[in-house]
Design goal:
By secondary structure, this protein is an alpha+beta fold. It has helices at residues 78-87, 155-187; strands spanning 11-17, 20-22, 28-29, 32-48, 51-63, 68-74, 97-103, 110-116, 119-120, 134-135, 137-138, 141-142, 152-153. It is built from 2 helices and 13 strands; from the N terminus they run E-E-E-E-E-E-H-E-E-E-E-E-E-E-H. The strands form 3 sheets. A 9-stranded mixed sheet has the order 3-2-1-6-5-4-7-8-9, sandwiched between helices. A two-stranded antiparallel ribbon has the order 10-13. It has a two-stranded antiparallel ribbon with strand order 11-12. Strand 5 (51-63) and strand 6 form a beta hairpin. Helix 1 (78-87) crosses helix 2 (155-187).
């Protein structure tokens, strides 16, 4: 299928929540498999009860060869950070990845295992290699939100995550370029 001006390819968005993959029609899956084609940061405004705030989300685009899918992940969420740290260890971005989310029984948090080429991906960077996420302290006291939860300074960690995403996107684009060159080479 050729794409030209004004053509928009259909994309299906999904979320990962409660240890499951959830599509807009509320279809729920235990796993998802696709080739990563891009990771972008989307910034938008959200208005709720008259209050407008800026929202950031990571959009991870996948293809299964026919359809495109986008996982919209929280900007500073631990699930996305673990995903990025895992796929940073990949060497072949032409291979599909399989996402297997689950709900941790001890912490009640959604976590995820990622496979590539049928092998479980480990983190590329250890916890000590990533910038720390520390409580925000003012006058010796930790800052709290309206519900009493400690507020954290995530800026250094998210700057690091953004750099890792940039390096992953370069690897993704290099995989795509190699494939396109090989296809053109076959024509001659």
């Amino acid at each position: 299928m050729e794409m030209g001006p004004g053509f928009r390819q259909h994309v299906t968005f999904f979320k990962i929540k409660e240890g499951k993959i959830i599509f807009p029609d509320n279809t729920i899956y235990d796993t998802f498999k696709g080739i990563i084609t891009d990771i972008t940061l989307k910034e938008s405004e959200l208005t709720w009860q008259g209050n407008t705030s800026k929202v950031k989300q990571w959009n991870v685009t996948f293809t299964d060869g026919t359809n495109n899918y986008v996982w919209s992940a929280n900007y500073d969420g631990y699930l996305f950070q673990g995903f990025i740290n895992s796929i940073a260890s990949m060497s072949d971005f032409e291979m599909p990845v399989t996402l297997v989310p689950y709900k941790d029984k001890k912490t009640d948090q959604t976590k995820m295992v990622i496979y590539s080429n049928e092998e479980k991906l480990g983190w590329k960077y250890g916890i000590g290699e990533m910038p720390a996420v520390n409580p925000i302290v003012v006058d010796g006291e930790e800052m709290k939100d309206a519900k009493g939860n400690t507020l954290y300074n995530k800026k250094p960690r998210m700057a690091w995550v953004t750099k890792v995403v940039e390096s992953i996107n370069k690897m993704i684009r290099n995989a795509t370029v190699v494939e396109e060159v090989a296809v053109e080479g076959d024509k001659f």
